Structures are given as C-alpha cells and as structure tokens.
Amino acid sequence: MAAVRVLYASAHHSTQEIADRIGERLRLRGHAVEIQALREPSDGQWRSAGDVLVLGSAIHDGAWLPAAEAFVRNNTDRFGSRTTWMFSVGMTAALPGPLRLLAEHAVQPRIAALVDIVRPRDHRRFSGVIRRDHFDRKGALLFRLLGCRYGDHRDWTAIDAWADGIVQELDVSRSGEPDGGPEGGL
Ligand SMILES: Cc1cc2nc3c(=O)[nH]c(=O)nc-3n(C[C@H](O)[C@H](O)[C@H](O)COP(=O)(O)O)c2cc1C
Fold first, then answer.
1. Which of 52, 81, 94, 116 could form a disulfide with 148 if both were Cys (CB 3.0 to 4.6 A apart)?
2. pTM
3. Once rounded to an integer, what is the mean pLDDT over residues 4-17?
4. How close is the Cα of 25 to the center of ligand 1, in Å?
5. 3.40.50.2300, 3.40.50.360, 3.40.109.10, 3.55.40.10: which CATH number matches 3-175?
6. CA of residue 102 to ligand 1 center, whole Å
7. Which InterPro entries match (predicted)?
C-alpha cells in the first residue's frame, strides 16, 4: 500500500471532482489516499515522509492556478526524490475540430516549466466543465467567436484509465521490492 496525496487547484469544481475520482480509484485499489485542495499559495505543506503525489490544476490563461503553481515553485528541489503524476484540466474538448487538434498539441510554456521542475511519471491533460458564468463578458465573447461549446467535457473513461495506470505503476514498483514494498513508502 502506498501513501498517496492528491493535491489540486480548482476554480469551478471540475478539477476537484476529477481529483476526487482519481483519489477514490486509488483508494479502491488499497492505497491510503489523502485529497487536499490548494487554495492559497501557502497551501500544501511538503511532507518529508515518502508520499506519492498526484498534482493537478485547472488551466486559466495558459497557466496553472496560482496556488498550484506556487506549490511547485516553493518545492522545486524536492520533487527529484518523489514519485509524482501531474494532470491539467482545460477546455480542449470545447473547441471546434481544427482548433482542438492545434490545442491538443500546443505547448503551454508556463505549464511546461512546471513539468520540467517536477519531472513526473506522466503529465496528462483532461478537459473539464465550462459554463457561460465562468467568464466575464470579454471572455464569453471570445469563446463564442472561436465557436466553442459550453458543457461538461470530462471523459471519465480516460480519467479512470489514467488512474488505473498509476495503480499499475505503483504495483510494479512495489513488486520489485524484497518485501513487496519499500520502507517508508515510495
Ligand atoms: C478565465 C478562464 C480562463 C481559462 N483559460 C483556459 C486556458 O488557457 N486553456 C484551457 O485549456 N482552458 C482554459 N479555461 C477552461 C478551464 O480550464 C476549464 O473550464 C476547467 O474545467 C476549469 O476547471 P475548474 O472547474 O476546476 O475550475 C479557462 C477558463 C476560465 C474561466
């Protein structure tokens, strides 16, 4: 059993629900899971014990929300010894076809910089929920001009599969240990 911390930053709850789902999936497979919101830049104290981290954030304007970005930047030298997965929640699936293809392959420099610091086992982008009341007037106008669709664009099958991939990797790591698990956790 690994001790897993799922840390997330969410503005309108869809990232929170994705974090809950991933955490619940890991819990069902026997891992000790703690799920925690990052709301302020000072949130999410680093723990010295050997946790596995799953770290996620909604994307706003090409960047992680400030509390999640701050968590990474406040702990830059600590990720090397930690097994970490990252996920970002945006609105790629809300875009019309050609734009969606572009967005799927676009590098977002501020997020890429965080991935460079964390060096996770994997970084996955999911689509979340986008509603008219999430935007101010300018944002809503741009959204309409781009031909985007409001709605819940979460692909729960893909989210579950990603969580199951984490479980598999944890199982493989631990089966390599002499006693089936490292002392002090992963
Ligand atoms: C002000 C604002 C800016 C956004 N900027 C981006 C963006 O740059 N890239 C993207 O993929 N999604 C963007 N989105 C979409 C959100 O990331 C998406 O709705 C996500 O599901 C929000 O997660 P949350 O419900 O946890 O806050 C933006 C949404 C808002 C409201």
1. 94
2. 0.93
3. 97
4. 24
5. 3.40.50.360
6. 17
7. Flavodoxin/NO_synth, Flavodoxin_dom, Flavoprotein-like_sf
Q: How far is the CA of 63 from the centre of ligand 1 (A)?
A: 9
The number of residues in the chain equals 186
Tell me the per-residue pLDDT of 47-93, one tens digit each, with 9 for 90 and over: 766 679 999 999 999 999 999 999 999 999 989 878 999 999 999 99
- Give the C-alpha distances (Å, rounded to integers) separating 127 from 4, 50, 70, 174: 23, 30, 22, 31
Q: Enumerate residues 6+ apart whose C-beta is below 8 A from 117.
A: 72, 73, 76, 79
By mean pLDDT, which of 4-8, 15-19, 121-125, 179-183 is the weakest?
179-183
Within 6 A (CB) of ligand 1 lie 10-16, 58-62, 89-92, 128-130, 134-135, 139
Distance of CA 21 to CAs 31, 42, 46, 160, Å? 14, 25, 23, 8
DSSP 64: E
Count H helices, E strands: the chain?
Answer: 6, 8
Q: 83 in helix, strand or coil?
A: strand
Rounded CA-CA distance 165/49 in Å is 23
Q: What is the DSSP string of 93-130?
A: GGS-HHHHHHHHH---HHHHHHHHHH--SEEEEEE-EE
